[in-house]
Amino acid sequence: MSTELLAPLDLAFWHLETDAHPMHLGALAVFAPAPGISPQHLLDLLGARAAAIPRLRMRVRDVLLPVGGAAWFTDKDFDVHRHVRQVVLPEGDFMAEATRLAGELMERPLGRGLPPWQMYLLHGAGDGTFAVLVKLHHALADGMRAVAIGAGIFDQIAAAGAGRGAVRRRPVPPRSWLPGPYEAAGMALDRIGDVGRALGVGASVVRASRLDLRGSTALTAISSGTRRLAVAEMDAEAVRRIRRAEGGTANDVLLAVVAGALRRWMLERGEVLPGADPRALIPVSRRRPGGAADGNRLSAYLLGLPVGEPDARERLRLVRAGMVRNKAAGPMRGAGAVAVLADQLPALAHRFGAPLAGNAARMLFDILVTSVPLPRSALSLGGCPLRAVYPMAPLARGQSLAVALSTYGGRVQVGLVADGKALPDLDRLASAVGDELRDLRALFPVVPAPA
């Protein structure tokens, strides 16, 4: 039976979860119909492809050593039918019904006695449009890893995997578990460096923490455990045009759009704009090309979203300047790198310190904003073209809103996950995203090419 210890950050995500604060991420993938493809065929295809992904056959169990630790075990009783299900939506607007149901399904924690993931086939649209909702526990995957795992359901990735066949691992020669003198010295130096970096991050976290938690009443509302999902889309070419005209990155433009949308939404609902800019936690992947694929590899930046600034162009400039400062410091420094601290803590500390850490998140940031990279090539399921993928991020304790963005098919798709009671008007915020990009794009008109 295959086993693998949970990495420290994975263990932290595992223990941070409560019934009211499930720690899974997800995506709502929407597909166009194809002739002759029935819902039952799609359900069978999803089940077969999910069952063929080794990672999805593993579940978490406690271990004796390290004390307080846990490990991934291959589930010998794995049954894909416990994980892949279908739901027939009522007649009406398909996307409205799909997002409503997806929000309800995202409320429910994943069962801990099984591999921690689920897929739902949502169908019932008159024109044959359907969607697949994917839920993966954050201990199982970060955003990049979730894409790599979930991509196995698509025709193109599944066919490529079948063509390669089983990958044979090279045998590892036996060796003593005792390190040699040079290796021991290197390990000691690495450990000293890790501890020093952790102390620096810890000091930054203490300096950045806020005891005064006043701000937007919606963003700082007491968690109800309910979930609501809304989606939005933006023209990726418009984002690139603004980036080319103003400099910086496409992500800077998207962060400025989020800031402007929050401002619009707050003003529309009659809120007084907060005196201090809401802080966004922006995850940063620490994965290296060709590096180990297992375990979460995350750090983050902290960025004040300039909702108090009335000028859209100035908001973009402020976001760019903030991200330049973050990148100059690097993803391993500053209070945003709080995830790095998890790598330095023993397993027992994660088990008993999770409640304290969960409550502290509210003192550090107000909103999560993350970008999820997707394959650029066209994808399909059973010959049905993929239209859009709306990513969904988990809500930390004390947080009411998380924003996730991905780009596919020339469009930027936005998934907004919110506490259902704190943000009952989440659809208005989704509309504000499109309105903000429209007005920002108007500041950068297309210049005709010279004749």
Structure notes:
With 451 residues, the chain is an alpha+beta fold. It has two domains: 3-164, Chloramphenicol Acetyltransferase; 181-371 and 392-442, 2-Layer Sandwich (Chloramphenicol Acetyltransferase). It is 38% helix and 22% strand. It contains twelve helices and 15 strands. The protein has helices at 8-16, 39-51, 94-107, 143-150, 155-164, 181-208, 236-246, 250-268, 312-329, 338-342, 347-364, 426-442; strands spanning 3-5, 24-31, 58-62, 70-74, 84-88, 117-123, 130-137, 227-235, 279-285, 298-304, 367-371, 380-381, 384-392, 401-408, 411-419. Strands 5-6-7-2-13-12 form a six-stranded mixed sheet, sandwiched between helices. Strands 8-15-14-11-9-10 form a six-stranded mixed sheet, with helices on both faces. α8 (250-268) packs across α12 (426-442). The longest helix has 28 residues, at 181-208. The chain is globular. The relative contact order is 0.18.
Note the main attributes of this structure.
single chain, 451 residues, alpha+beta, Chloramphenicol Acetyltransferase, 6-stranded mixed β-sheet, globular
Rounded Rg:
23 Å
Count, helices: 12
Summed up, the domain count is 2
Strand content: 15-25%
Which descriptor suits the 3D outline? globular
Quantity of strands, as a count:
15
Order of helices and strands: EHEHEEEHEEHHHEHHEEHHHEEEEEH
CATH topology of the largest domain: Chloramphenicol Acetyltransferase
Q: Which homologous superfamily in CATH is the superfamily of the largest domain?
A: Nonribosomal peptide synthetase, condensation domain
Helix content: 25-40%
What is the top-level CATH class of the largest domain? Alpha Beta
First-last Cα distance:
68 Å
> Which structural class matches the secondary elements?
alpha+beta
Mean pLDDT across the residues is: 82
Poorly predicted residue ranges = 165-197, 289-293
Strand order of the largest sheet: 5-6-7-2-13-12
Largest sheet: 6 strands, mixed
CATH architecture tag of the largest domain:
2-Layer Sandwich
